[in-house]
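Go through this fold for my students:
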Amino acid sequence: MTKSLLSSLTLIAKTKPVTDPLIQRQNKLIARIEVQIEMAKCFAEH
């Protein structure tokens, strides 16, 4: 029983964290812009 249970499992590759400095800078910039958009929406409502 144990062997059949283990053989039914599938293995997947672990995703690697982003280590490219260019991608990291882009993600940081996107996050900052999203914060600014939220602040502008809040400011426009009040």
